[in-house]
């Protein structure tokens, strides 16, 4: 479909920068206050332990590519990363096997169906199509080069820890709760095997996937991990190059079309940022070249996306000027064009989704 030599031309990165620090600090507190009382949605309970989460928890963190952090609420509370791990394992696998192989072996299109769908694979000749739903994510985990499942798990954990800039721990209780009840994911693993889409042992690969979903993170960790994708693959806290800039571009592209499950189109329409959510209530939304928002609140909409997290991201995207698709007529920039008053006025004019 595309001329491959055109893909070799160097790409420019997204331009612009975040508004002044005082504005960001103020807006993150406002976003938190604005949505803290929203009680719509339900805490996930299909993984039994997740039902015990405190629905009142709500944390928001913004980390810039310069490493600055702006936070409000429960930003230090740990929860399981769940599906958000799919984005970062995808990046690690892209780094190892490359753009073409991932395109061919997993696919980069939205299935339009629920994250744990089996029928999506059946309808598409056995292709998982989308690395951000369970089938594609289990296939992706199976593509991470390793001699054994133990080594694959070690590489996943170390890789995600490099994105976070600290050693991430496995939440054993969450892992056990999901491992005892994940019959559907095991069926997905077997179905992938039957279509020749999974080389390593399917049940062992599902086990590695279950562990990766049970890594504990905070809203702050998610913002650092997202800011690494926003920063050409360099962790803004540790300075480590975790993956290449080309891999960040590929990962963010897939997040834009597939990161919010079957609501990805609506998310992009309202918020205009690549993002990924998980059923424990986390969301990471990435603004290429600028930074990332990490959100945590466990009440979910029917697709499995945090309700407060989505609303806060919409507010912040508008208030901070993050939407990738928003433009204004070109004119010579004036020094006052991103003044604090402008930023606040914009937030108040476009408050909610
Ligand atoms: N571990 C979860 C599962 O496989 C992740 C799903 C999610 O966060 N949407 O069901």
What does this entry look like structurally?
- This protein is α+β, with helices and mostly antiparallel strands and 353 residues long.
- The chain has a single domain, classed as Beta-lactamase (3-Layer(aba) Sandwich), CATH 3.40.710.10.
- Helices cover 44% and strands 10% of the residues.
- It contains 14 helices and nine strands.
- The chain has helices spanning 21-35, 84-97, 99-105, 119-123, 134-143, 149-164, 172-179, 183-194, 202-213, 219-230, 245-258, 264-270, 307-320, 340-349; strands at 42-43, 59-64, 69-73, 79-80, 216-217, 275-277, 282-287, 291-296, 299-300.
- Strands 3-2-8-7-6 form a five-stranded antiparallel sheet, sandwiched between helices.
- Strand 6 and strand 7 form a beta hairpin.
- Helix 2 (84-97) packs across helix 3 (99-105) and helix 6 crosses helix 10.
- 54% of the residues are buried.
- Glutamine (GLN) binds at residues 82-83, 115-116, 134, 178, 185, 213, 278-279, 304.
- Glutamine binds next to loops.
Uncertain stretches of 5 or more adjacent residues: none
The secondary-structure class comes to alpha+beta
SS element count, helices? 14
Main pleated sheet: 5 strands, antiparallel
Bound molecules: glutamine
Strand content: 5-15%
Record field, number of beta strands: 9
Looking at the structure, the CATH topology is Beta-lactamase
Adjacency order of strands in the biggest sheet = 3-2-8-7-6
Helix amount: 40-55%
Number of domains: 1
Would you kindly provide a brief summary of this structure?
With 353 residues, the protein is of the alpha+beta class. The protein contains 14 helices and nine strands.
């Amino acid at each position: 479909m595309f001329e491959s030599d055109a893909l070799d031309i160097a790409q420019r990165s997204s331009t612009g920068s975040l508004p002044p620090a005082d504005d960001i600090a103020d807006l993150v507190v406002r976003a938190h206050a604005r949505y803290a009382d929203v009680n719509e949605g339900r805490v996930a309970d299909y993984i039994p332990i997740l039902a015990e989460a405190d629905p009142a928890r709500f944390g928001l963190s913004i980390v810039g590519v310069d490493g600055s952090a702006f936070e409000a609420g429960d930003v230090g509370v740990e929860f399981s990363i769940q599906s958000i791990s799919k984005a970062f394992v995808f990046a690690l696998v892209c780094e190892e096997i490359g753009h073409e192989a991932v395109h061919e072996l997993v696919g980069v299109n939205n299935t339009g169906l629920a994250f744990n769908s089996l029928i999506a694979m059946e309808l598409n000749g056995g292709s998982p199509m989308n690395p951000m739903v369970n089938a594609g994510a289990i296939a992706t985990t199976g593509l991470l080069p390793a001699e054994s499942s133990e080594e694959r798990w070690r590489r996943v954990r170390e890789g995600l820890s490099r994105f976070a800039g600290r050693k991430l721990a496995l939440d054993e209780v969450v892992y056990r709760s999901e491992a005892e009840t994940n019959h559907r994911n095991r069926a997905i693993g077997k179905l992938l095997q039957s279509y020749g889409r999974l080389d390593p042992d399917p049940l062992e690969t599902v086990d590695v996937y279950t562990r990766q979903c049970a890594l504990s993170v905070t809203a702050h960790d998610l913002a650092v991990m997202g800011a690494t994708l926003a920063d050409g693959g360099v962790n803004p806290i540790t300075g480590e190059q975790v993956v290449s800039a080309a891999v960040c571009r590929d990962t963010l592209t897939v997040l834009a079309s597939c990161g919010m499950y079957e609501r990805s189109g609506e998310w992009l329409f309202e918020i205009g940022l690549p993002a990924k959510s998980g059923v424990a209530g986390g969301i990471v939304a990435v603004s290429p070249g600028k930074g990332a928002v990490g959100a945590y609140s466990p009440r979910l909409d029917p697709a499995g996306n945090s309700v407060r997290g989505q609303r806060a991201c919409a507010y912040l995207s508008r208030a901070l000027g993050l939407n990738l698709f928003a433009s204004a007529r070109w004119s010579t920039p004036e020094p006052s064009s991103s003044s604090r008053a402008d930023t606040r006025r914009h937030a108040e004019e476009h408050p909610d989704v």
